[in-house]
Write a structure and sequence with these properties.
Elements: E1 4-9, H1 13-19, E2 20-21, E3 26-28, E4 35-37, E5 40-43, H2 48-64, E6 69-75, H3 81-86, H4 95-109, E7 127-136, E8 139-142, H5 148-151, E9 155-159, E10 163-167, E11 172-174, H6 177-195, E12 207-216, E13 225-233, H7 253-266, H8 282-292, E14 296-303, H9 309-323, H10 333-359, H11 373-517, H12 524-538, H13 543-546, H14 559-570, H15 584-649, H16 654-720, H17 732-743, H18 750-761
Parallel strand pairs: 1-5, 1-14, 6-13, 6-14
Antiparallel strand pairs: 2-3, 3-4, 7-8, 7-11, 7-12, 9-10, 12-13
Length: 786
């Protein structure tokens, strides 16, 4: 038969409509979606006597008839569970007191079945015994014993015939209802002391209260029966329990095991289950017979007016599991009642026939008359069948005992093998985990080795590129030193030429003053010759021959020169034969003055070109020095970054190592690309510098030639016309611009290119740090670095 579950509620009207379906006797929960179908749902207004007559009295009848019975009660702390079991002010007697009274009433009604009434002295008379204990966690407290030391020594033992038995538990015989109720009152006083705190609040720890009544019929044909009253308290801790969690809280181990036991029994076959006792708690071991064996069990779930949603859902889940458990008692309630009535009827007819035979009442023959053969035969057949049934029951009990022993032996063997299998499985799982960890570490080491090899290759390439760049920079420095030496030599020569130019200018001024004044000096010609020789020895005499011819405009002739020119025309002589009219000494002076003026112009041109070249070389050296210093600083920065990434690749953290390796690959690839681009930019810059210097030199020479030509033309006008210059010619600046446009100069951006290279090689530069072309770069050591 299935375990029957009954709900007793105290809902308000709104809660009643929300959580209860009275047509199908189904209760629902607000959370979790739990529900349960009950056999009956009663209101708290129903009297305890009516509840007892309807739900508990059939169990008392089955118990008196020789079958096990159990009343299982559970609910929240404010659900009225204690009122249901123990009574209240209106109804003093609860279900337990009514049950004890009904046991004695039924035994007194059926007293004619036994030769003796309830007695403790006669071994053949029926006997009743009372046990009561309190289970909290794994501790058992005997409520009939006030000695705490003795109660702490109680332990549960597993037996084949009677199942779990508590060793050392006090069993009190009861032969009258007054003795039973008195012992019950003493037990309840001790129970309320343990179940409630000093301030009157209920204890929230999970606990179970047991009150067992044992009945020995006094006949060898009838077996001992047990009536158990069980009350489960402290269900509030179900809010901390979920079926999938790791159970590390010993406080809820008992109710967790009961929760799991109900789930296991509700999914198994009917009858007594083979439940391993090593996986249960003390509370569940004491309830295995009532929940999953030969017992008639009924459950009463008490529900408060406003239940906790989580606790209510858990209780509905437990109640739903209990409704699916199918026990296998020998008889159910109706069969027990029918068997008891038929037994009483048979005894009545036998006693009536016996009295009629001996008293000759109602037309029966004399007592000395022999009984009818049919009655004797029927009685003999009945006795034969009873003996046959007793023999079969005895053999069945022996077979069950033997099967139980074999089951216990096999269970022990299976338990040992299962423990060995679990140990082996744990070792195998641990070895698998270790192998997997070793494989992962091996792969990490291989990846680290590959990354280190790649990093070493990149480092070698960087070292080669650095050596190449250092050699290239060394060559540039050597060339710059050569240029500096040449510029210094040219500067020295220019200084000497400048001093010579100053000396020549002074001499020219002296000679011009003498010529203008017309003073004759005997030593003038000798002095001029000496000066001319000194100049020729200092300057290459072929310089004057390379100069462009001077194209002078016609000047105004003097009257003497005009007459001489006319006379030359008449006589067929050249027109310019008037030079013969000029004194030879003056003509030589003019020639020397023109040569000196041309030399002076060449000196000025060389000086200007020298200063320009010196300034350009100094500016180029500064720019190249700043560029090389900045590049060396950037190279050291990149080498430090690569070293940091290589050290990160060797880290034990796999994520850090992977990201460092990825960053190292990208860093090296980007650096090589920048180095190639930088080399190309440097080559282009050097070519641009050389071309610019070449073009500037050509432009400077061409401009100086134009300026020198104009200067010679002006000097010749001043000499020929006695210091009177009639045509100034083109200004010098326009001559320079014309020469520059004629050479088609290009745009040189050496500083801008160096700045762009610095920006491109720097990974992260803020927008405010972009500098303009020509700004100074960071100053670092100019010594070549690796």
């Amino acid at each position: 038969m299935q375990i029957e579950v009954i709900a007793r509620h105290n809902f308000s009207y709104r809660k009643y409509n929300e959580m209860l379906d009275e047509h199908s006797f189904t209760l629902y929960s607000d959370s979790g979606g739990s529900s349960c179908h009950f056999k009956d749902i009663i209101d708290c207004s129903t009297s305890l006597r009516e509840t007892f007559e309807k739900n508990l009295k059939p169990l008392i009848t089955a118990f008196v008839s020789g079958f096990n019975a159990c009343l299982f009660s559970m609910g929240e702390s404010n659900s009225g569970q204690n009122v249901l079991l123990h009574g209240h002010a209106t109804e003093v007697q609860g279900l337990m007191q009514l049950g004890l009274q009904d046991i004695f009433e039924q035994l007194n009604q059926d007293q004619y079945k036994y030769s003796y009434a309830l007695s403790t002295s006669n071994e053949h008379s029926p006997k009743l015994f009372l046990q009561s204990f309190f289970v909290q966690g794994e501790k058992i407290v005997d409520l009939q014993n006030t000695d705490a030391d003795e109660s702490s020594e109680l332990q549960v033992l597993s037996t084949i015939e009677d199942g779990p038995v508590i060793k050392g538990l006090i069993t009190t015989p009861i032969h009258t209802v007054h003795v039973a109720l008195g012992r019950y009152q003493d037990v309840m006083k001790r129970y309320f002391t343990l179940a409630y705190t000093l301030d009157g609040h209920a204890n929230t720890d999970p606990a179970g209260f047991f009150l067992r009544v044992l009945f020995l019929p006094g006949s060898p044909r009838l077996k001992k029966s047990t009536l158990t009253f069980f009350s489960l308290t402290g269900v509030e801790c179900l809010t901390d329990y979920t079926p999938m969690e790791e159970y590390q809280n010993p406080r809820i181990d008992a109710i967790r095991a009961l929760y799991s036991l109900i789930d296991q029994l509700s999914s198994g076959p009917p009858g007594k289950r083979e439940i391993p006792m090593y996986g249960l708690s003390t509370l569940t071991r004491l309830l295995t017979e009532e929940l999953g064996g030969n017992c008639c069990t009924r459950v009463i779930l008490s529900i408060p007016p406003s239940p906790n949603p989580q606790i209510h859902a858990a209780l509905l889940h437990m109640a739903s599991g209990l409704t699916r458990i199918t026990n296998a008692p020998v008889l159910n309630d109706e069969a027990a009642l029918l068997l008891a009535s038929r037994y009483r009827e048979m005894n009545f007819f036998l006693e009536d026939a016996f009295h009629r035979q001996h008293s000759n009442i109602c037309g029966f023959p004399d007592p000395t008359r022999v009984p009818e053969p049919a009655a004797l035969e029927n009685s003999q057949n009945l006795r034969y069948h009873i003996d046959d049934l007793n023999g079969r029951l005895q053999r069945l009990n022996e077979e069950v005992a033997h099967a139980t022993e074999e089951r216990v032996r096999i269970s022990k063997l299976w338990l040992t093998s299962e423990e060995d299998r679990v140990i082996i499985a744990d070792k195998f799982a641990a070895s698998e985990v270790q192998i997997q960890e070793l494989r992962i570490k091996n792969q990490e080491l291989e990846s680290i080795a590959a990354k280190a090899l790649e990093a070493s290759k990149r480092a070698i390439e960087l070292k080669r590129a650095n050596d190449l760049l250092n050699n290239y920079c060394s060559e540039l420095y050597s060339k710059l030193d050569q240029c500096q030496n040449e510029l210094d030599h040219a500067a020295t020569q220019n200084e000497e030429l400048s001093r010579e130019l100053v000396h020549q200018m002074a001499k020219q001024k002296t000679l011009l003053n003498r010529l203008v004044r017309g003073t004759e000096d005997k030593d003038l010609q000798a002095e001029m010759e000496n000066e001319l020789k000194r100049i020729e020895t200092m300057i290459d005499p072929t310089i004057a021959s390379h100069n462009a011819p001077v194209t002078a405009k016609p000047r105004t002739l003097k009257p003497l020169e005009k007459d001489a020119q006319k006379e030359n025309v008449r006589s067929g002589k050249p027109v310019n034969a008037n030079k013969d009219l000029i004194p030879k000494t003056l003509r030589e002076k003019q020639t020397k003055l023109m040569k000196n003026s041309e030399l002076q112009s060449q000196i000025v041109v060389l000086k200007v070109e020298r200063d320009k070249a010196h300034q350009d070389s100094e500016q180029s050296k500064k720019v190249f020095a700043r560029f090389l210093d900045h590049f060396r600083g950037r190279l050291v920065y990149h080498i430090n970054g690569i070293t940091h990434l290589v050290e990160s690749v060797k880290s034990d953290d796999q994520v850090v190592a992977d990201r460092a390796a990825h960053g190292l690959r990208r860093y090296i690839r980007h650096l090589l690309t920048e180095m190639n681009a930088a080399n190309k930019v440097r080559e282009a810059q050097l070519l641009n510098v050389v071309e610019r210097m070449d073009i500037e030199c050509k432009v400077t020479r061409q401009a100086m030639k134009e300026i020198l030509t104009a200067y010679i033309y002006l000097r010749s006008q001043a000499i020929e016309n006695d210091g009177c210059i009639t045509d100034l010619g083109t200004p010098p600046l326009e001559l320079v611009d014309a020469a520059t446009r004629s050479m088609k100069p290009t745009d040189f951006n050496l500083n801008l290119s160096a700045m762009a290279l610095a920006v491109s090689t720097e990974a992260k530069r803020k927008p405010g740090q972009l500098v303009r072309a020509g700004n100074r770069f960071p100053r670092v050591s100019r010594k070549p670095q690796n």
